[in-house]
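<instruction>
Derive C-alpha cells from the sequence
<data>
Labelled lines for chain and fold
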Amino acid sequence: MSLFNRIGPVFPSELFDFIIDFLWDDRPSLKITLAERDDCYNLQRLIDATAARADPLGGYVRELSITRIWARGGDPCFSSRYFRELIPSLVARLIYVDQLNLTGLSWGGIFEVRADVVAKFLTLYPALKVLRLTRMTFRSAQDLYSLLTAHPLLHTLYITSVNWESEGSGSTALLPVHQSVEDKPIQLRELLLSFTSSTFEPYFASIGVFLMAPPFTLDLRRLQWVSTPHSSGQQTLNTLVRRAGSRLECLRVALPLRKQHLIPDQVLDISSNTNLVELQVDCDGRTRSIWQPTFLSKIRSRLFRALDLNFDLRHCPPQVDFLDWEYIDNVITSLTLSRPNLIVRFSFRSHITDTIWTTDLIRDVAAGLPGVHAAGIGVGILFRDRDLDDIVVAEHWLSPVALSQGFEERVMISQVETI
C-alpha cells in the first residue's frame, strides 16, 4: 500500500483556487517544502498526500526543491521508500516546473531499486530552465551528464560540491563515455561552479571539460567560480572567461590564494570581456598578495560600473597590509577616468564582537586610497559578521556620491552557499 494512501484525509479540492488566489502575492508562503520534519510530520504528510492527489496543483508550481529526507524512527529504508513513492505520485504532476533544486541527495541511493523512475524523472520537466545541484553524489559521470543533457531549454546551471562514485584517476577517466549525436544543443547563459574542498577538484575539472563540448554551447552572461586555494582548475576558469568574450556581463571569482600559489593574472585575462558590467572578487585577507591590482588593471569594458572586493579576515583586529594599496588606488583611479559612474565596494567578513576595530579599519582603508578619495569616487566599506550569516553590521561610504547614484539599489552578483 502506498505511503500516501495511508495518510487519510486531504484538503478539499474546492479550496485550492481560493488558497492560491489568497496567497498569490505571497511567494514565500507558496513554496512547498518536501523535507520531512519531526515537529510537523503529520502536517507534512497531509500536504504531500494532498498535492499528490490534486490535479490542478501542477499548473501553479514553477520551482521545485528536493532536499535529503532523513530516516525517521531508526528506519534506514524510510528515506528511499518515501522518495520512490514521491516521484511517481507527486513530482510527476508538476510538469510545468522550470526551476529544479536538488540538495544532499545520493543518486544511486534514490534510484537503485526502480531504474525506470530515473528515465521518467529525466523527462518530467520539458520546460526546465534553471538547475541547481548542491552536495550531490552520482553513481557515475554518465548519470550527471544524462541529467544535464535531458533538458534542452536549460540556460542556468549551478553546481556546488558534486561528485560521483565511480573509480578513476585523472580527469579523462572521469569523463562521461556515452554522448549521443542526437543531443539537442543546450545554450548556457549563467553558470556557477563551486568547490571549496580539494576532494571535489578532479570532478570539477571533468565537469568543466564536458560543459565546453557539444551539446553544450556557452553563451555566458553571468559566471561564478569558487575554488579551493590550491586549485589546479584555474585553466578551466581561464577558458570559460575567454570563450564568454564580449557576451559576459557579470563575473564573480573567488580564489583565496596564498603567496605560494599561482596568481590569477598569470592564467586569467578579462581584457576580452569588453561588455563586463559587474565584477566581484573574493580574496583571502590573512596573507599579503599583489595579484588583485594587476587583475583589475586588465578591465577594458567601457560599460563597467560596479566592483566588489570581498576579504575574509581571520585576525581581530585585522591589519590592512594584505593589499598593495598604492597600486590599487592608482588602478581604481585610472578606471574611473572613462567610467565616471563606477562604484567600488570593499567588504570585510570576520567575527565582529565590537565596532571599535571597524573604525580603525575604515581609517586605514581611507588612508590607503588618497587618489580615490580626492577624485570623489564612490567607495563603500562594509563589514559582515560570520557568526550572523554574513549580515552587514556596519557600513561607511568614503564619498556621498555613491548614495546619490543609487548604488544600494543595484543588485550585485549573488552570494553562493559554501560548503
Notes: DSSP finds 14 helices and 14 strands in the chain. The two ends are 39 Å apart (CA to CA).
